Amino acid sequence: DGGITQSPKYLFRKEGQNVTLSCEQNLNHDAMYWYRQDPGQGLRLIYYSQIVNDFQKGDIAEGYSVSREKKESFPLTVTSAQKNPTAFYLCASKGQGVTYGYTFGSGTRLTVV
Amino acid sequence: GDSVTQMEGPVTLSEEAFLTINCTYTATGYPSLFWYVQYPGEGLQLLLKATKADDKGSNKGFEATYRKETTSFHLEKGSVQVSDSAVYFCALHGDTGGFKTIFGAGTRLFVKA
Q1: B-chain residues within 8 Å CB-CB of A102?
Q2: Mind listing the pLDDT tens digit for each residue in A74-85?
Q3: How far apart are CA A7 and CA A107, in angstroms?
Q4: Closest chain A residue to B10 measured between Cα atoms?
Q5: Nearest-CA neighbor of B4 among B21, B18, B23, B17?
Q6: What is the pLDDT of residues B16-75, one digit of tens each?
Q7: Which of A45, A99, A105 lies closest to B51 in CB terms?
Q8: CB B34 to CB A101 under 8 A?
């Protein structure tokens, strides 16, 4: 079955470390997105990509970086510049056109220790 | 710009009660409208959608009708179950060239046995 796989499910980061969250999809979707969700809060867009080798900043891109070298993959790096990285991170993809909804992964919970 | 406003939670209901979660939107053009559901510790799942005025989306006993005259897309279910306890997000995707889906803040639903 097609879907999105995020890994790891839980991730612990020490102060000053960079960590990379994986997101892979086999839906043949062009568009992919990264969202951050804090406890009891809605979704905030970090980065999105409409096509391979191209991506745009979302509303809270500072302290994060992404790459899109393959259509299937859109990894997110949380850098040491992100001062408050503890959150739930969600990756999503979307088919072409306004009538298609998002398919979300199951999320990665990142905790700073 | 486009926006989505949904009723604040939490909403607490007894099993078999009627559910309404209000959602209104602001958008230019003719957006598609969506409801997503998020169970604890998981990613969001597409619950239902409507892509044009007067369309009714439905799934798993939930329904929502795209009302352009009142710019609303309220979620309803005739008889809720304990298993419906989750956070519900209203969202829109515009047709004016943007590449982002706009999410509401989410409404948490608790259903008591």
Answers
A1: 34, 36, 44, 46, 101
A2: 999 999 888 899
A3: 8
A4: A40
A5: B23
A6: 999 999 999 998 888 999 999 999 989 999 999 999 999 999 999 999 999 999 999 999
A7: A99
A8: yes
